[in-house]
């Protein structure tokens, strides 16, 4: 059943958070500086921007270094075992730091904390955390922190409870000219390997007016690029009666005049003709689509519960390329899914050859507790999976190198983002297809679109020269 309105956090609950932020800012001996360590995807990166916004409202400043901060917050990810291990490894460092500086306030949040039983583990094994909260409780961070300061006891909240949308939270963006805009939360797809539906809850679309108002304000603020976020942006509005389709939402945003629009992630089963049309006829949508395929084998795709076949995926990709010949496609791939045979893997390799992606994120299947795939028979031994991923990476690297070499001599429009970390006097930014380009330039270019010509293809980046006005 569709809802008529998004499930919003009630105004009184938000007011309680504003009150808590005010109280903390006046709290004697409160922490003065903070440091956030973010793991995982763009949703987490954006959640950290919100947490940063809240901490700023509480009067804290970002610390100059993590070791000097008075409050440290870990925003965790649990998509694969190695994501979890990275965070857990760093917690040892937090334990040592807290032993040296007992007044340090330590907080942990994000997808790891939202897992069932995790709060018990935290209580037992990580008693040095002052505050722990799950993804559904993010907006309640101020009142949880206040309680920890008042009681000087560990405060944990990771209930499934509401999964409501909190509008109007403060946000401190990482970049003055690029911004994330969440259009929906959660995921209903239940791909058999994936933990996200369990830790981010059911699909909830934001009200279109809230999205458009936020985008308008960002444009007025001088933002040059907006990245629309959702685990499956193509199903935007499916839960909300009267909401526009994602394609219509994209058209509305395009006509607002956002200079460049990106979005992720798209699920291949939901790429409609309407969306392809909206992208092709837009003035501002980037020439890039991240379209995770996961596997090239029909048997594996079925076991993954992906809802498309190799054939239907290839047809959607062909339709995208027919409408937008220059579009860059990128993907995610999993090797070693339970039951994956050498033939199944060969199908993935051949799909990669056929698709010619600009690039691909490749992962070895990691069993996640509670998911169907973790209980499937035919788990692939680690050495087999490692050997397969190496072959896959080699194939993709060869294709990427060919595509990058083919871009030499072309004209691209780059949003200049920062001074190059490697070379003096160089600026780095991304072209419309999402590739990093480096070129000679000065800091005055940062935050602006610079027309360039590609001169050389590197391993993961392109070298370019800015075009003179008459050439541009
Ligand atoms: N919502 C997005 C991406 C979610 S997670 C989508 O549907 O595509 C990002 C990527 O992590 C996935 O595309 C998948 O390739 C990978 N991934 C997710 N769970 C995994 C697991 N258990 N083991 C290995 N890779 C996984
Ligand atoms: Fe996970 Fe699948 Fe949802 Fe992506 S679409 S978040 S892979 S369940
Ligand atoms: Fe990780 Fe949670 Fe994102 S599990 S990939 S941070 S949604």
From TrEMBL:
Binds 2 [4Fe-4S] clusters. One cluster is coordinated with 3 cysteines and an exchangeable S-adenosyl-L-methionine. GO terms for cellular component: cytosol. It comes from Candidatus Avichristensenella intestinipullorum. Transmembrane segments: none annotated. Residues 173-402 form the Radical SAM core domain. This is tRNA-2-methylthio-N(6)-dimethylallyladenosine synthase. It is found in: Cytoplasm. Belongs to the methylthiotransferase family. MiaB subfamily. The lineage of its organism: Bacteria, Bacillati, Bacillota, Clostridia, Candidatus Avichristensenella.
